Amino acid sequence: MNVDIEKYADLKICAAVSGGRDSMALLNILKENAEKYNITLTALNCDHCMRKTSAADSAFVKEYCQKAGIPLHMYTAAGKKFESEGEARAWRISCYLQEAKSCDCVATAHHLDDNAETVLFNLARGTSLAGMEGITDEDMSIAAGRQFRLIRPLISCTRAEIDKYVATHKIPYRDDETNASTDYTRNKIRHLVLPELERAVPGAASGIYRFSRLAKEDEDYFSALADKLISVSGGAVYIARCDEKVIFRRAAAKAVAKIFARRDYTAAQMQRLFELQYAENGKKLEFLGLTAYSEDGRICIAEERSSIGCEEADFCTFLQGATDYMDVPVHISECQTADADGMKILRFDGAKIPQGATVRFARSGDKFRKFGGGTKKLGDFFTDKKIALRLRKSIPLLCDGQNVLIIFGVEISEDVKIDAGTKEILCAAAPDFANM
């Protein structure tokens, strides 16, 4: 069995061991080569408590590691109830993350046939090119917002090669009784589809492996181009205009899945996002709790904000201090001299704020007396300042009736400007809406 262990020289490796033949083969190979390549080897075992024999499997791993002198950390999900394989996998990955704090990487025993099963499964579900990458030889996995290195030394080895290695070296192992069942989709592919495919096309699994590696090279190239389209500012994600659908859709999928953690998007939604970039400014698409807007040929995606009552309710009368208005932070205090990062500081005459002035959002009929003179409808002023349509109803205003005195994060009115008679200079800090 050809396994390139040398590339893992001088690493601290923690092997994930279930007790099955694949993981026991992996553990044995790493142990055999640890001294030669200066590998510091440890192991971990995760008992999901989903099978009656899982405790016995863990006990077997514990006994083997004790005899072999391999440090072992054991995790048990006792008391947890997993509703799906996905939940169980997420828990297992969290265990890997815990071990990754004291080693360079975690090793799993995925092999070439596992890769073929994954590619065939994804293909049957109508996946994109990214799904054709299969199981890579290593990657940076993510858990609890942290990354760790996950390696798969056996990924180019076939099932038959591993079986032969285990038999030749008389490596003990335990069989997971559920692996023989065809009740699960992957098991059906493993026991029914792949053997028939191998009989029809000898070496099919190896061919699928080569294809998956070529697919990964292509996907890495397209993905790098998509990354260049994405930028993040002010809590929103921007996707630059791109007429190449294959690139734009990758960028949109990355923004939705990785930045907003929405993974149940559809191909139809990605197509509508692509078309939205050609729509007039302000057109929007709502999906998955997000809202996408067309802004000057680019797409802006942001979390939806509830607007219930925004046009009717006053939040409060004018007060100094720090307050959040529908998650928009506003801080009114004695004057500051410089804008904070991402915030705009507006200086105004506190004594000119009339009693009873209130903070609220925009309403029909609002007007604004521009700094320097001249009154405009608030909407027209927003247009002059190139304030995005998606932001206009979420910008807090300090108002006296329909007269807007301060547009927080944008501008103050002529009515509250500082002049020679000003005795009370105050500052209002809020997000810089003009640069979002």
Low-confidence stretches: 306-312
Rg, Cα atoms, Å? 30 Å
Strand portion: 15-25%
Secondary-structure-derived class = alpha+beta
Explained architecture:
This protein has about 425 residues and is of the alpha+beta class. About 30% of the residues lie in helices and about 25% in strands. The chain has helices spanning about 20-35, 55-70, 85-100, 110-125, 160-170, 185-200, 205-225, 245-260, 265-275, 380-385, and strands at about 10-15, 40-45, 70-75, 105, 140-145, 145-150, 230-235, 235-240, 285, 290-295, 300-305, 315, 320-325, 330-335, 345-350, 360, 365-370, 375, 395-400, 405, 410, 425-430. Strands 12, 16, 17, 18, 19, 20 and 21 form a seven-stranded mixed β-sheet that branches. Strands 3-2-1-4-6-5 form a six-stranded mixed β-sheet, sandwiched between helices. It has a five-stranded antiparallel β-sheet with strand order 7-8-11-10-9. The two termini are about 55 Å apart. The model is unreliable at about 305-310 (pLDDT under 50).
